[in-house]
Amino acid sequence: MANVALSEVSKSYGSLEVIEGLNLQIEDGSFTVFVGPSGCGKSTLLRMIAGLEPITKGTLQIDGKTMNQADPIERGVAMVFQNYALYPHMTVEQNIGFSLRMAGLTKDEIASRVAVAAKTLQIEPLLKRKPGQLSGGQRQRVAIGRAIVRDPEVFLFDEPLSNLDAELRVSMRVEIAKLHNQLGSTMIYVTHDQTEAMTLADKIVVMRAGKIEQAGTPEELYDNPDNLFVAGFIGSPRMNFLRGTLGGGQVKLESGGALPATGTEDKVLVGVRPEHFVEAGQGAADIAVTVDVVENLGGTRFVYGTLSSGESVVIEARERLGLKAGDTISFGIRPERAMFFSTSGTRLRNI
Ligand SMILES: Nc1ncnc2c1ncn2[C@@H]1O[C@H](COP(=O)(O)OP(=O)(O)OP(=O)(O)O)[C@@H](O)[C@H]1O
Ligand SMILES: [Mg+2]
Predict the structure, then answer these.
(1) Which residues form the ABC transporter domain (predicted)?
(2) Whose CA is nearest to atom 27 of ligand 1?
């Protein structure tokens, strides 16, 4: 186990700066998830921690030791890639033991470490097969097995589940959570999947264009985002942003209704999560919604609709309202859960 500290870390390719003066503390034994739009620098950051990519500026420390110049092996990290990168001509056993053979361990040591990894990942019956004879989920386990045998201080995962179908993703996600509990190692994980981020992370790091927008527990980011970008990025379906005007002790929504608020007259955006709408009359600012589509998930349902302002909304309706496309219905907003943002995206906390 080890902590990882990034201090003013930057990465440039020629004149293109893709990571800019990034600071981050990753606690010993924690599970940290990087999320952010495509191209924001998640893989680059992971590869710099792994030692696969030089750090242009700043300092990387693992367990208190500066590692900028250290070889990947010396860093005590192991990386699991999205595309598995298994050797097709080797058996599962040989694939998992490969790095140990390279490191010169004895046959007995290799066999025992491979056996432990195979048991942990429940792939013992597959050891004699080649990757071509495995399912996607089994291949992914082998790729994780290759990391486990190295007994790393820090595991780095770059979208390890994104090639798997939905059902397998869910079961592998649970497997990874169990693995983290069992090994207690520091894990850093990149994903595009909201649910993976929310369920696996002790800490989520939201990145945009090479910078950290906000880092915190899943609940902190969900309940208390620092800005419009994080508010819109965390949560699925995403938060609704309704245009309004602040003045005279309220925010008047363009779509009708008003929420109590103080502050000087200004255009604002009111953020409301799908689950923070209520029956008309039960909250503040009733708004009329014309239903476009109802997505019924069994236990709950999402109403996709349009407001009189032309804005689109997604509303979670726990009740079976019997709605269909074209219907118009009013919903209220829970005023204590609404968040306010400036049109430039800053969170307005004092209104
Ligand atoms: N070798 C390279 N030379 C120049 N630019 C690069 C190189 N590798 C990556 N980049 C650029 O660096 C930026 C960050 O890339 P990176 O792969 O880290 O993004 P990412 O957040 O992992 O995206 P994705 O979610 O699509 O995997 C991108 O703009 C990319 O085009
Ligand atoms: Mg990437």
Answers:
(1) 4-234
(2) 38
